[in-house]
Design a protein that fits this description.
Elements: E1 2-13, E2 16-22, E3 34-40, E4 48-54, E5 63-69, H1 75-82, E6 88-91, E7 108-113, H2 118-130, E8 136-142, H3 151-155, E9 162-168, E10 181-182, H4 187-193, E11 201-207, H5 208-220, E12 228-233
Parallel strand pairs: 7-8, 7-11, 8-9, 9-10, 11-12
Antiparallel strand pairs: 1-2, 1-6, 2-5, 3-4, 3-6
């Protein structure tokens, strides 16, 4: 367990905030991993609130951060939002195997919805910073641009190796509001941007129902279970 100091609170999109903390020198993690954060008073009869979040930063940064949908019913999130800068927050050691392959191989395809972007965001930043030879395509589904966390940052990561495909599901958006892809992630959309889609390795992250639907879609496309990695977001 490490104790961090809250450095920054930032609104990323409608209903979504990021929280950043100082990083201890002894804390080491891989992009895509998560950790348990706890806040509250210590002591036998004191209540501590604990939640787990994916780290949105990359190991080369001198800070740690996570992003989350804000919920009125979440005691943890409301208390964290109200905490003054400099307040202490405890963090566990990093956990999780939803990480990049050790070396470049088959193309990677990320399928993310809403706040499920967080592990992919960390991995994409890391790949871009390292100048990785890995081919990566991100399909990122949201209601509208205002509700889309990291939209500008992700577009800034695009290169000859990294494709960013954002798609919006709100049918009422005008062309001025959004001139990109529309609708949910589909086999047609994947095939449009990924020529070698049958051989790709698929990373899926987001709400349980979305992940289940995406896995069913990939299975019907003939993608094998060994080509699918899943990170489900529940109760956020």
């Amino acid at each position: 367990m490490h104790t961090l100091k809250l450095l920054e609170k930032k609104e990323l999109a409608e209903g979504t905030m990021a929280f950043y903390f100082g990083k201890p020198a002894s804390f080491s993690y891989l992009p895509g991993q998560y950790a348990f954060f706890s806040i509250g008073e210590k002591g036998l009869f004191k209540k501590k609130l604990v939640r787990h979040f994916t780290l949105i930063t990359i190991p080369s940064e001198d800070r740690l951060g996570f992003a989350t949908r804000m919920r009125a019913e979440s005691d943890f999130k409301n208390k964290l939002k109200a905490m003054p800068i400099g307040s202490p927050v405890d963090i566990s050691e990093p956990l999780g195997s939803f990480i990049l392959p050790e070396s470049a191989g088959a193309p990677l395809v990320f399928l993310a919805g809403g706040i499920g972007i967080t592990p992919g965001y960390s991995m994409l930043q890391s790949a871009a910073a390292a100048g990785s030879a890995q081919e990566i395509t991100l399909f990122y589904s949201n209601r509208n641009p205002k509700a889309t966390a990291f939209l500008a940052e992700l577009k800034g990561l695009a290169s000859d190796k990294i494709k960013i495909v954002a798609t919006m599901t709100d049918d009422g958006l005008s062309l001025a509001e959004w001139d990109g892809e529309r609708g949910r992630i589909s086999p047609e959309l994947i095939k449009k941007y990924v020529a070698s889609w049958p051989e790709a390795l698929y990373y899926m992250s987001g709400p349980l129902e979305m992940v289940k639907a995406m896995k069913k879609m990939l299975t019907e496309m003939g993608i094998k279970s060994a080509q699918i990695k899943i990170e489900t977001f529940t109760g956020y």
